[in-house]
């Protein structure tokens, strides 16, 4: 079976909707792999006889592996056919998930989790592929739609893993995820076009060019810093939620996973933010998103003043708010960064997401330690402070996104 090649001239036409949906599905399945463990931490502790700090290393190593994979592997999208990379990583990620489900002990699971993070960078091959396929006037909308799939994968993964783990055990979650990735790989093999090589550099020169890009574009640096700071609070919340709900409200993994439904409402921000960025520029969207996240996290601090049912309601409302803010900011940052240098989209994306997932890994680690030593309100304070820092970065003066994109 032959597959047509995508060429830049083909970008004048809108991307077919089935192809956009395929990319969105793949991005969602890939990034979901990073979050399956979070609602299951209490179950993992019971299964392996480990404490919360030890099992908290599972999401931490997964996020760290993702950050390393983005930095070391995602730039390859500018050097090789993205279709080949997507197919290869689909298989490798499925194998890593299967190894997680079959892990005989905690150390084996920790090692497999690191590999899951490395290969889940499949998502960071898919999003630049969508940006390359889309015409400039529809890039924000197309990236936003694919990001909706990615963000739903992040949020609904917690729902699925919580429910499946409660019914079939935590191992069944990883096995089901591996099967889903293999099915996506089959459909992608049939449906994805080939992509031309954007930058035929050797690996060492390709990696060296990351430093050049980082120093050349101040808007890239601001985007990576701001998204990374937001990610600290985002990850601290989600990595400690299951433990907090169990300790304070005696709720199990299914309830913790169900909070993903509240967060999933935030995924609606992706296409909305993409359209707004197309029309009015991404800078305004980044400020609105960071500000909404900070306010939403701060509202959680009012929980102890309310009765238990009202505390849950407030937590749901705030979860919708901060997820909406974080995702809107991310799509706006991607729209901004992808416009800086079309021949370096995979590398620019790698730098943006390296900053973001260093924040994710830091948030998972900080959240676990802060919860253990100072309690849930300290986690809320941590998230609020870091969201405020992200807003401060976005409020700093600088060149407009359009000037930066033009190299002015």
TrEMBL record:
One of its GO terms (molecular function) is transmembrane transporter activity. InterPro entries: MFS (IPR011701), MFS_dom (IPR020846), MFS_trans_sf (IPR036259). The keyword RNA-binding does not apply. The keyword Transmembrane helix applies. Residues 19-399 form the Major facilitator superfamily (MFS) profile domain. Keywords: Membrane, Transmembrane, Transmembrane helix. Pfam families: MFS_1. The chain crosses the membrane at residues 19-36, 56-74, 86-110, 143-161, 173-192, 224-245, 251-273, 285-306, 350-370, 376-393. It comes from the Bacteria. PANTHER family: MAJOR FACILITATOR SUPERFAMILY (MFS) PROFILE DOMAIN-CONTAINING PROTEIN (PTHR42910:SF1), TRANSPORTER SCO4007-RELATED (PTHR42910). This is Predicted arabinose efflux permease, MFS family. It comes from Paenacidovorax caeni.
